[in-house]
Amino acid sequence: FQYLKRFDQGHNLDRFCYEVLSVEGSPAECLQLFLLHCGVVDPSWAELRNFTWFLNVQLRDCEASVFCNPDFVGDTLNGF
């Protein structure tokens, strides 16, 4: 949710990292963003769960990768 919210607001996500145990927005706002970005017109709860699980895994791996660390790669992958 934190990434999607910032993405919708046009923020640069290159230096953003998930803040553990922080709470942002309401459950309704979270659900609205998931529905907007999941890519399915009328998703089931299972499809929303799969979308959020997949997004979470991808973002966690991205944060852990040295190749996605702007301090390591500099501006060679700007916007990647």
Automatic annotation (TrEMBL):
It comes from the Eukaryota. One of its GO terms (biological process) is ubiquitin-dependent protein catabolic process. Keywords: Ligase. Transmembrane segments: none annotated. One of its GO terms (cellular component) is nucleolus. InterPro entries: RNF213. GO terms for molecular function: ATP hydrolysis activity; ligase activity; ubiquitin-protein transferase activity. This is RN213 ligase. It comes from Molothrus ater. The gene is Rnf213_2.
